[in-house]
Amino acid sequence: MIVSCITDRMGNQLFQYAAAKALAVRNKEVVKIDRRYYSHNIPTGFSYELDAFCIPQYFVTDEEIARYTWPNDSLWYRAIRKVYPKYCYFEKSFEYDKGFNTLGSKVYLRGFWQSYKYFEDIEDLIRNEFSFKEQVNTWDDHFAKQIKESESVCISIRRGDHITNPKIARIFGKCDKVYYDNALRIIEQKHKNLTLFVFSDDIDWCSENLKFKHPTVFVKHSFDTPRYDYYLQLMSMCRHFVIPVSTFPWWGAWLSTNKDKIVIAPKTWFNDPAINTQDLCPPDWIRI
Length: 288
Prior knowledge:
The protein contains 11 helices and 10 strands. The protein is α/β, with parallel strands linked by helices. Helix 9 (203-209) links the parallel strand 6 and strand 7. It folds into 2 domains: 2-129; 142-287, 3-Layer(aba) Sandwich (Rossmann fold), CATH 3.40.50.
């Protein structure tokens, strides 16, 4: 049994599950989900969201958790697990863990596992399980129809805690208007008559402050479900992508089935240059 400790928001949850699924397939095991994180005092807006996808919902029991890991992260248990970690394995660094595939068939995974390399061998299976339970009807939904019938570019703008939280702002890189203009120039070299679809956690700010030379549609949150799975689905329908430092639009771009898609991602994911992010994006994505 492979247990995936699921935390944070949708983008991170998808990475955590995908890595666990790949390890389970290699070992002919099942993935069980530990979602206890959402039963504690979590930040506003955080919730378990993997049930929006066609992912088997197998949840680990208290008895299984007790066999695989320690009850909590107190100093006492942290000291114990250094000597006897049970089956708990912590992510060592941000870059791809080359020893991941050798972890075996009994493991409790703690980490974020943000690299396509963890699951590239089972891409078709991940795409199948990451299909949305409630599909947008592209013919009846005018908004989705606009995206499908144009040379659509998903422009994702991350603001929120990257702007309002000084601690987080110091950790992650920023994508300014120059970044988006440069990214669009790359796409313009191969495609004309672009239509931009702007997705953001602060769409009102975007509509008031961002101007592009291409026709632009600002995707209001009124088109979305409270958990943003519809928002992600609309993103994935676009033909090309310019993403910020954020795992949510990363998945919007990855889930796109357009074989000719151009994906632009920021080269500076973290402000700390010592953090290696070379394994984050597939090799055909362009980082600037």
